[in-house]
Amino acid sequence: MAPKLGYLLPTREQIMEGKPDAASLLGLAARAEAEGFDSVWVGDSLLARPRHEPLTLLAGVAGRVPRVELGTAVLLPALRNPVLLAHQVATLDQVSEGRLILGVGFAADVANIRAEFAAAGVPFEKRIGRMMEGLRLCRALWTGQPVDWEGRWPVRQGVLAPTPYRAGGPPLWIGGNLPTSLERAGKFFDGWFPIAPAADAFGAGLVRVREIAKAAGRDPASIAGAMYLTIAMDEDAAKAKARLDSFLERYYLRAAAAIRAHQACYAGPASGVAAYLNGYARAGAGHLVIRFAGAHETHLTALAKVRASLGW
After folding, report:
1. Last residue of a domain, one of 112, 146, 170
2. Which residues, other chains included, contact 278 with Cβ-Cβ below 8 Å and sequence gap of 6+?
């Protein structure tokens, strides 16, 4: 089966360029839908990499584009009170009529993200436990039944309304490549959504995630496999690489080579990107979420043509 193709809105890039308006982002979402993309995604950060608040923006996207799925790539649940998060997500799922996918993560250990957690009053070292417990509480609240919860967030006979459009709430996807990350994905999540590795290693990781799911008594086929990829296209490969490196260095304030070592990236002509994407499809990826290194309108049209050439 051909993978779905997703598009990451440049929320961070727009802020970096001094363009905070949401209208242009909604326009890009509409353009992606018109070009045949299957989903539109947004990232998340408070202070480390400032950008539009993802759930609020996705509500706007939901009202603008009626067909595509909507997703977070990725949301940081540990920064949020899970009772409030459950309410926001349930409402967004209702607004989008069940089109939401909640991609989640626990954040990289770098100085500006540690500072972001401190500013939000969240202990960075406790972020994984907070995320896991918070998502369990969200799922309990999404049932619409009275919830009693003993833990970081005590709840007494709490009843959430509205519940999500889809019974049980939107699918939860998580990334990470460490053995513990694969364990979490297989045991507790609905999808595995990493930003690395290369296609062959992705395929092996997905097999492992599904083995873990089966051992935990879950249906391994129910675990989605997805990839987050950064792409710069140009028929001149050197220009494409220069654009990608410039984008990564401005975005992360680190050497591009260091970022490329930990994130799946492609720079080169359209003919090469077809083979690149097809490698992940053959490895089992059912959804490819693409972040473009600038020139979004041009890239959207070019990638739509690549997709057509692949027969997807």
Report:
1. 170
2. 310
- How far apart are the C-alpha atoms of 88 and 84, rounded to whole Å? 6
**Do 148 and 191 belong to one domain?**
no
Please tell me the pTM assigned to this model: 0.97
The three-state (H, E, C) secondary structure of the chain, written as one string:
CCCEEEEECCHHHHHHCCCCCCHHHHHHHHHHHHCCCCEEEECCCCCCCCCCCHHHHHHHHHHHCCCCEEEEEEECHHHCCHHHHHHHHHHHHHHCCCCEEEEECCCCCCHHHHHHHHHCCCCHHHHHHHHHHHHHHHHHHCCCCCEEECCCCCEEEECCCCCCCCCCCCCEEECCCCHHHHHHHHHHCCEECCCCCCHHHHHHHHHHHHHHHHHCCCCHHHCEEEEEEEEEECCCHHHHHHHHHHHHHHHHCCCHHHHHCCCCEEEECHHHHHHHHHHHHHCCCCEEEEEECCCHHHHHHHHHHHHHHHCC
Report the CATH number that the domain containing residue 244 is assigned in CATH: 3.20.20.30
Give every residue of the chain whose pLDDT is below 70, as ranges.
none
Shared domain check, 238 and 154 = no
Residue type, 233: M
| Residues 220-240: tens digit of each pLDDT | 999 999 999 999 999 999 999
Radius of gyration in angstroms for the set of CA atoms belonging to the chain, rounded to a whole number: 19
Choose one of 141, 170, 199: the last residue of a domain: 170
